[in-house]
Amino acid sequence: MAKKNRRQGSATPAIVAATEAGIPFATHAYEHDAAAASYGEEAAEALGVPAERVFKTLVAEVDGALTVAVVPVSASLDLKALASARGGKRAVMADPAAAERTTGYVRGGISPLGQRKPLPTVLDASAEEHPTICVSAGRRGLEIELAPGDLAELTGAALAPVARA
What we know:
By secondary structure, the protein is an alpha+beta fold. It is built from 5 helices and 10 strands, in the order αβαβββαβαβββαββ.
């Protein structure tokens, strides 16, 4: 899977992080539709990948601290489970402007990799059911495919069941 699609233009911080780590990955570019209702579902459809293998990166606050949750686009984030996974009491979705400012990415293009300020990360345990998963590569219309274990290692993510159907 060392193949990289060079049509994506300049490398995003997420791609740079994966490259520097020396892990196998592939990038997949697609034409982003600004009218798309869901960035993640758009990516799954455009790439022809089952929605349970495409993961969205969500930024929440657990007891006031920004935290990243990476869950399948086919599911929702269980805020109570996220709080528990982080040893906290309460989780709420973060203000989108704070998420963008802290990660350095725009909404719909937030990657768990290469964030401006790395945040504590929880990867939904369902990721382990797949040899590879896709997450945002740092901009709308660009995904990075990698092994869940590599993603967890690069982000320091805890694996926990934080998604719900």
